[in-house]
Structure formats: C-alpha cells, structure tokens
Amino acid sequence: xxxxxxxxxxxxxxxxxxEQLAEILGVSRQAVSKWEGGQSLPEIEKLIAMSELFxxxxxxxxxxxxxxxxxxxxxxxxxxxxxSAVATMLLAVGIFAAIGQLSDGSATMDIYGGLIIESVGIxxxxxxWFLGGNRVVNKPLxxxxxxxxxxxxxxxxxxxxxxxxxxxxPPFHPIPILLFSGAYLxxxxxxxxFAVIRKSVKN
Length: 203
Description:
Number of helices: 10
Shape: elongated
Number of strands: 0
Distance between the termini: 25 Å
Order of helices and strands: HHHHHHHHHH
Largest sheet: none
Oligomer: single chain
Number of domains: 2
Strand content: under 5%
Structural class: mainly alpha
Radius of gyration: 22 Å
C-alpha cells in the first residue's frame, strides 16, 4: 500500500471527506486531493497532525510500519470503551435510583445515595480516559456519560443555593428550574467543550 492509499484509507476510516480533513488540518481540499493522488507529500507538521488525528505513527503513514506502542494501544482502546460503557450504566442507575419510588410510595434512595453511585461511575469514566491514553476514545459515549453525570450535581447545587431540601429533581417552579438548567448547561457544556470540541479543533 502506498502513502496516498494509506492517507485515503485513514481518512475514510474516520468517516471524513477530503473537505473535512482539509479543514481540520488547515489546508485546501486540493492539497488533500494531491496527497491522495500521489502528486505531492504532506509537510512534516501536517504528518504530525494526521498521526494524532488518526491515532497512528508517522512511520505508519509514510512506510506502513506499526510500532509496538501502537499495537499495545488497541487493547487499551477496547478496555477504555468497556469501562466507559459500565460507567454509563452506573450513572444511569444512580439517577433512576435517586428519583425512583417503591410500590408503597417511599423513595428507593435520596439524592445523596444517587450521588454515591454516580461518583463510582465518574471514577470509572476517568479510568476509561486514562486507558484511552488521556483522550476520548468514543466521543458519543463520553458525551452521554457527561450528560448523565451532570443531572444530580446540578440539582443539588441549584436547590442548595435556594435553600430547598435537596432532591433528585428541582421543584416545579420557574426559578429552581432555571437555576438547575443553568448549572446543568454550565457543568456539562464546559466539560464537553474542553474534552471533546476544543481537542477536536486542535487536532
């Protein structure tokens, strides 16, 4: 396989068009087209950017060689996704346990119990992050995890500020709901921006 074929294969493997890859790398679509057509070679800084984007070594792009560190990273990617999936389950269980009720009308767990379960889920999420080489391996799953993890803390923060008795869901009044929404958007939006959006733009 030639260099141009590897670049094309890596691009398609990421589900990117030539235009999208060009935008990420800060070059024209014609430049990407020339790389894939064998008419020119990427500059060294573009090779570095592509190696980070496609999670391969520069040697692989140039010569098709796979280093030992790269092959050992693949099981870590799988482990990262498995751990993140378990974290999703725990985060969801934490929310449902906190807001759920038994048949006699009593609560299955208060907000603090749900937060304890969520904290375990967040710990697993961090473990998945480290297993993935300090990067988000599965972006959609990571976003889902953050959206789940933000529910109970946002509710606790908003109700504590208003001096209400903390509960899994805010009272159905405009001010608590607005405060909850603001806290939720701030917490989730900040984490997703720095962990996913900003990192993708840099790559």
